[in-house]
Amino acid sequence: TLIASRTAYIDRIHTSYENVLGKNNVDVIKGFARFVDAKTLEVNGETITADHILIATGGRPSHPDIPGVEYGIDSDGFFALPALPERVAVVGAGYIAVELAGVINGLGAKTHLFVRKHAPLRSFDPMISETLVEVMNAEGPQLHTNAIPKAVVKNADGSLTLELEDGRSETVDCLIWAIGREPAND
């Protein structure tokens, strides 16, 4: 299944990282940590001293601060879906949002990509962004530019309506937040 393949792939990546770190004499200690001083760390109640310390907090998907945000899912949630929804909204303008929207569109769902500014992939070479917009206009997913989410409403039939600040809205079966990542440092 898609979920099993994704999980196996991620496990292989993690194992690869651990092997590289081990070959470079890096000790990996998992737990909750805090600095005691510049060369001392407390991890799960144990004190560790080292000349060089790196705390890799990892990251998690960001979500907008709007009403109804909890009705959307992130990329992890998408890969856990039991079936492909008929109508999907992807909110974001980076490569993860573009990739997800492209894959979902290619699988046959009516797909919408909502971006806050004039185009997706704005940090890329302008030719790439412009070509992407041309392809999306011809083949999908449907691109919604200057689209700033205001709220998500869960309807009686289980569908979701994404409301935008400018009054536009779109009703879908699944909404995916792909607006970036933030450090998991809490």
UniProtKB/TrEMBL annotation:
<keyword id="KW-1015">Disulfide bond</keyword>
<comment type="function">
    <text>Catalyzes the reduction of glutathione disulfide (GSSG) to reduced glutathione (GSH). Constitutes the major mechanism to maintain a high GSH:GSSG ratio in the cytosol.</text>
</comment>
<dbReference type="Pfam" id="PF07992">
    <property type="entry name" value="Pyr_redox_2"/>
</dbReference>
<dbReference type="GO" id="GO:0004362">
    <property type="term" value="F:glutathione-disulfide reductase (NADPH) activity"/>
</dbReference>
<dbReference type="GO" id="GO:0045454">
    <property type="term" value="P:cell redox homeostasis"/>
</dbReference>
<keyword id="KW-0560">Oxidoreductase</keyword>
<dbReference type="InterPro" id="IPR046952">
    <property type="entry name" value="GSHR/TRXR-like"/>
</dbReference>
<keyword id="KW-0521">NADP</keyword>
<dbReference type="GO" id="GO:0034599">
    <property type="term" value="P:cellular response to oxidative stress"/>
</dbReference>
<protein>
    <recommendedName>
        <fullName>Glutathione reductase</fullName>
        <ecNumber>1.8.1.7</ecNumber>
    </recommendedName>
</protein>
<dbReference type="GO" id="GO:0006749">
    <property type="term" value="P:glutathione metabolic process"/>
</dbReference>
<keyword id="KW-0676">Redox-active center</keyword>
<dbReference type="InterPro" id="IPR036188">
    <property type="entry name" value="FAD/NAD-bd_sf"/>
</dbReference>
<dbReference type="InterPro" id="IPR023753">
    <property type="entry name" value="FAD/NAD-binding_dom"/>
</dbReference>
<comment type="subunit">
    <text>Homodimer.</text>
</comment>
<dbReference type="GO" id="GO:0005829">
    <property type="term" value="C:cytosol"/>
</dbReference>
<comment type="similarity">
    <text>Belongs to the class-I pyridine nucleotide-disulfide oxidoreductase family.</text>
</comment>
<dbReference type="GO" id="GO:0050660">
    <property type="term" value="F:flavin adenine dinucleotide binding"/>
</dbReference>
<keyword id="KW-0963">Cytoplasm</keyword>
<feature type="domain" description="FAD/NAD(P)-binding">
    <location>
        <begin position="9"/>
        <end position="185"/>
    </location>
</feature>
